[in-house]
What we know:
The chain is of the alpha+beta class. It is built from five helices and nine strands, in the order βββαααβββαβαββ. It has a six-stranded antiparallel beta sheet, sandwiched between helices. The chain has a three-stranded antiparallel beta sheet with strand order 7-9-8, covered by helices on one side. The radius of gyration is 16 Å and the shape is globular. The protein starts with a strand and ends in a 6-residue tail after the last strand. The mean pLDDT is about 90.
Amino acid sequence: MNQPILTDELIIDCKDIYLREYRIEDLEKLQEITWQPEVYEFLPGWNATIEDRSLWLTEYEIPENQRFKQAVMAGGYIGELYLRMAIILKENDEFIGWCCSGIKEELPAPNREIMYGISKHYRNRGYTTQAVNAMTEYLFEHTNVEVLNAIALTTNQASNKVIQKCDFERGSSIVIENGKYNHYHLRKQQGQF
């Protein structure tokens, strides 16, 4: 199991990468990756201005990670709190992407989603699969989450492949803001957590 490392910062160790909470210094790299056409093609709305991204990071995302950790320490009931983790390459501590979990209002309840994005320079190396598996395991073992959802545009073969490798079961297709998505789910007992 990928045990969380006990420090003030939540870190989840994996084979080649680790997940850690967002930091202020992640802003430029996060912004750079979200503006890669290979990313915003499949994650509409993630290519915001640097000013918006800075505001979101400092005013919402980092503080909410703190509230998420407090909820875990208080018994694991996380409600609608989000967890946003950076994917960091172990060999050089480089920020290469993100893996997050939060509520996706367009999905039927229970509607907690796992989402991710990775730099075009680090695709097809298994890093995203490691991140999704680690986040899934963490949520099932440390929170009250019983079901996780994942969605991927039907045209996003790489993302669909990651979700399937992580043992999510495919459900029906759904349309969100004119995009057709495959909808997957994974139950806690299904993953043997």
